[in-house]
Amino acid sequence: MRGLLTRLDGRVLHEDLDLDVRRGEVLGVVGGSGSGKSVLLRTIVGLQRPSSGAIEVFGEDVQAQSEGRRRQIEARWGVLFQDGALFSSMTVAENVAVPLKEQLALPAPLIDEITQLKIALVGLPADAGAKRPAELSGGMRKRAGLARALALDPELLFLDEPTAGLDPIAAAAFDTLIGDLRRALGLTVFMVTHDLDSLVAICDRIAVLVDKRLRIGTMAELLRDPDPWIQEYFRGPRGRAATERTAGRSDD
Length: 252
Known about the structure:
The protein is α/β, with parallel strands linked by helices. The protein has helices spanning 37-44, 67-74, 92-103, 108-121, 138-149, 168-185, 196-202, 219-223, 228-235, 237-251, and strands spanning 2-8, 11-17, 26-31, 52-54, 56-57, 60-61, 77-80, 156-160, 188-192, 205-210, 213-217.
């Protein structure tokens, strides 16, 4: 992203914002309430147009492409929205099959086989495929949404608050899953989160939205940043506790 300007309801959320995401990394995006973290994700994937600036993905300006070319680019990324954003009238298997049916001309038996593979890949039991989202726990819905995001074997994965609403055990398990999938599939992950444990456990770098711009670095680099909000966020009681918990898991 270069020079990104985003306005929402007459308010400037991002101003002259620059960002490079490195292939193969997990980049965490954090910021205060209302800072525009999720809006940034939605802008990158084309659900909201920026007021100005350029967004380039896989070497192509996504805003300048034809509809057909844009669909081809979009097939190379997957998105997990908050709480999974599953179609409530469909089963989990039918949800996972949606991108396969939209993007690929495959026979039904092969779609069913791929769907079951993706469901298993995210750690859901086989019988979850026949259930509707309302029959699942919050953690299972997120895993089902992740299975759909991975349906087309994407290179780039967008996650919007993936551990929000999960208990600590389920959140830690989801962090482990993302880390394992990143390594096994060679994914690049752009993760909007407020979960300090996730930032410490699986992120290579962190981008902090402060005063409409981004400050980017490793955890160690950001801990040296003099910005008051960054210091309070990472050096406050929750930040210290997250660092200590993750250090404890590493020692184990």
